[in-house]
């Protein structure tokens, strides 16, 4: 976990600056911090500008993050009255927004390679908008439904399920019977549906068995219209976060226990009973990463992953990394950065010692842009968080402070050091 004490101290200075309550010593410390780097100066201007504070204020006011506010009050020794008092005092709201900006990491980037170079950009970047909830559902009969165009309510019927789209952009299967086939079922060979998100898209789906899946951009999930009696199996391309529902075998064929759930993706199979985990299996990444948040999973890989030429069992907080290629290599990271792995699901980019290539691949998928590098690839490592809801220009402004330049040509971005 990152040590936020430095951020809280900086936040307190900025809060007091906005209130006009800085002591002489605190003003000297704040001035010294601002003068340390171009990044700090730009950050200070951002955090004390009304435009960005108003934007963050609206986001914070509507989020209901009372626990986050309580933590900020405790760490910064702010002793203010009720939320009602905040609403009536504009400087309190601005101070709150400044603190939230710093603590949330929206602008708190710490670059390993500091740069005092002034902003140098070949061309001012256009404001590419972030991704939204959009996907295409391909049914077993090959018909397609554009989910971002479809209205809320029932959109299709299949076997014993009614497929609906909720008002908040979620696909739900409501099974009128058991979500898995029984011995007496005449539907022994169910069809398969595929939900596919484009670049710049994301989507949530509740499968016929009640399992929940969050799909990241440029990803697809193939699943049966009705799961088999003794196994639930889906195929993933790209990235998804899973919350698997437990379903009992109920003595079928003399067996008891839970029906296993298996996810096949990029040369591996993840086998679970009921758990929360994330799989990143994009074809342009060097490794397939399976990160476990809750429960237990088995990762199997090899020429026939189901047989498990290589296998390991993950515990919560661990990550399996599969290096694909002629000689697959499977290893486990015992203390994985779980927050970084699922940041996309929670609406954030999060980096920890992350190189520019990895960052630009994420940008490419989420903002639907093409990326290429020109000349030597910058070796800067980045650490921090920023919302996935911001225009791309804000990300560029942050990256530029480390000496990275961008050339924009339509939806093509050229990165130069």
UniProtKB/TrEMBL annotation:
A molecular function (GO) term: sigma factor antagonist activity
The keyword DNA-binding is assigned to this record: no
Keyword tRNA processing assigned: no
Superkingdom, natural source: Bacteria
FecR protein domain: residues covered: 194-298
Bilayer-crossing regions: 91-112
A Pfam family annotated for this UniProt entry: FecR
Keyword set, alphabetical order: Membrane, Transmembrane, Transmembrane helix
Boundaries of every Protein FecR C-terminal domain copy: 349-415
Gene3D superfamilies per UniProt: 2.60.120.1440, 3.55.50.30
PANTHER family per the UniProt record, alphabetical: PERIPLASMIC SIGNAL SENSOR AND SIGMA FACTOR ACTIVATOR FECR-RELATED, PROTEIN FECR
Name of this protein: FecR family protein
Biological source species: Larkinella rosea
Lineage, top ranks: Bacteria, Pseudomonadati, Bacteroidota, Cytophagia, Cytophagales
